[in-house]
Prior knowledge:
The protein is an alpha+beta fold. It has helices at about 30-60, 70-80, 125-135, 160-185; strands at about 85-90, 95-105, 105-115, 145-150, 155-160. α1 (about 30-60) runs parallel beside α2 (about 70-80) and α3 packs across α4 (about 160-185). The longest helix is centred in the N-terminal third of the chain and has 29 residues, at about 30-60. The termini are far apart.
Amino acid sequence: MFQFFNDHHELEGAHAFLSASNYHWVNYDEDHLAEVYINMLAKQKGTELHALASQLIKFKQRLPRSNKTLNRFVNDAIGYRMASEQVLFYSMNCFGTADAILFKNNLLRVHDLKTGVSKTSFLQLDVYTALFCLEYKIEPEKIGIETRIYQNDDVRIEIPEPDLIREIMAKIIVFDKKINEIKNGE
């Protein structure tokens, strides 16, 4: 029996890109490997840009006025005095973190920073809105709501219908109950 393994304690809990547990790379050709790796790097960059944006907002450090996505997102969040990286909680089964959010003068603003290039949906922001309404027991019909996506040096704005937010709220409640039933063996 082999008894002497090399010590790699500094790697415990870490995962290599070419790991055994994510073995799909074995079937890649070099072009697909490059594509997947570049996407992973872009995701890491996005995570770091979100952290940077959050710090800038928290310290109220404006960026030069520009149409660049990061600059507009940070400056708007500071200008509106929004909270950054705010957790919205319904249950341990359903919560999320809004990039920037503010509720003031009966108007809910939810802003999202997107660093990728692929088309995005406002549905994520609608879920944040539903979570906000559930957590703070606010009826979506009784407030104004504005959501924004900052991406590709552009800002897209949507005013979600209260009925849509109400539907998402109902689905969260039903799905949370179902998950809890499964957890409890019901």
